[in-house]
């Protein structure tokens, strides 16, 4: 939610002018008499919107600064949106696990998101109800269950080999120096693309698809009129642009949907087509309460969700993971030793990964310290309720702030330290699903927990293991200290994108 680039003083003036109008209308709808959690005082109408925007900080940094003053639950008013931030393990457990049924829906969509989500026809955006149940059940049972995951092993093996070749080629061309995020992103995207469409694509097509998806993500960045709809008259150019991007997305993706449909109708006609894909499950999808299956536009939206949900998140984890292995060479050596003693001279296979206790500890620690997103997706309550004695109205955005839990000194010894051994010694542990208590929640917890959890951890484990097996990773420039500052770019990536020096293992 990096708003700062949008805002100039002129908006402040504009907002003040228009605020009188909004004030008049919003008084009727206003949440009077509610006992909302505390929060920084804001201006009439715009609330804290301009304070956040003009702070020049990413939204997560702004929230981090407020925590010492306002504690585990607080409110930010962003124009017409009320954000209630939860930053405490116990409260999050109460909301998402103990009272999960109540906190499991999503808030209303802004107009741009409504267009791209086909009016909430995705797993992540759907309101709690029959559409969400049908879409989520289909995704989990037909794509992400452990038995289904096994069927895509060939795709993963292929992508891992290509990842190593790509890194090696980049190092050869650049004196042993490589960018980490780019290669991890490409490998993950290739896996998800193959799972999603079941078609072979050349590098140019993959690049085109990736550019398209990135353009969509940028178009979905929040705008000021999402918070102050009365200003939407000043954003007609942006609205037109969003429609154009949506059309371009449809024009780009629908031919692949048709190609897959043809391949299924005429088995054997496309030799590169795989036996199974996410699209196949969607062609036949029966959605509770609907007579017909998804339209082409809806299929585009659902495929984009599958690709976007798993690409940047996974790649971001790899970037932070490699950074920590460089900053902690003893961890990297220990991991390499485990790999050697488990597989000897052959390539790490995903079947080995379960046996590698230290690798799993490294990945867990990495997700605790660096959850790829600092907020889970926004939740909302299905009916008005109370939490910690405060009112939670149905039109509030309930935001779950993840680092508050993973770095809580009441829950973790030396939380700032990257220390995979904390899990090995048996002194500390955490159930990543949060059922037994929330101590870290990189995938969220409760009924809306990330359905890609098992696949994502498989990808992160496998990629890190292969990358460490093949190369020794050190800093670039040599001996330099790694800067662990993060910045928001859909996920929280490293502010200075990680470059590393690599040496093939003997
Ligand atoms: C390291 C990788 C990943 C991380 C850290 C991650 C994290 C998250 C988080 C924090 C949420 C929000 C949970 C909530 O609303 O409380 C989420 C939801 C979701 N994720 Fe992931 N995710 C990852 C990979 C994936 C993958 C590989 C897929 C599928 C291809 C995926 C698909 C989804 C979907 C569809 C939702 C929405 C679930 C719902 O609303 O019911 N994610 N993820």
From TrEMBL:
<dbReference type="InterPro" id="IPR001128">
    <property type="entry name" value="Cyt_P450"/>
</dbReference>
<keyword id="KW-0503">Monooxygenase</keyword>
<keyword id="KW-1133">Transmembrane helix</keyword>
<keyword id="KW-0472">Membrane</keyword>
<keyword id="KW-0560">Oxidoreductase</keyword>
<dbReference type="InterPro" id="IPR017972">
    <property type="entry name" value="Cyt_P450_CS"/>
</dbReference>
<keyword id="KW-0812">Transmembrane</keyword>
<feature type="binding site" description="axial binding residue">
    <location>
        <position position="450"/>
    </location>
    <ligand>
        <name>heme</name>
    </ligand>
</feature>
<dbReference type="InterPro" id="IPR002401">
    <property type="entry name" value="Cyt_P450_E_grp-I"/>
</dbReference>
<protein>
    <recommendedName>
        <fullName>Cytochrome P450</fullName>
    </recommendedName>
</protein>
<comment type="similarity">
    <text>Belongs to the cytochrome P450 family.</text>
</comment>
<feature type="transmembrane region" description="Helical">
    <location>
        <begin position="6"/>
        <end position="25"/>
    </location>
</feature>
<keyword id="KW-0479">Metal-binding</keyword>
<dbReference type="GO" id="GO:0004497">
    <property type="term" value="F:monooxygenase activity"/>
</dbReference>
<dbReference type="Pfam" id="PF00067">
    <property type="entry name" value="p450"/>
</dbReference>
<dbReference type="InterPro" id="IPR036396">
    <property type="entry name" value="Cyt_P450_sf"/>
</dbReference>
<keyword id="KW-0408">Iron</keyword>
<dbReference type="GO" id="GO:0046872">
    <property type="term" value="F:metal ion binding"/>
</dbReference>
<keyword id="KW-0349">Heme</keyword>
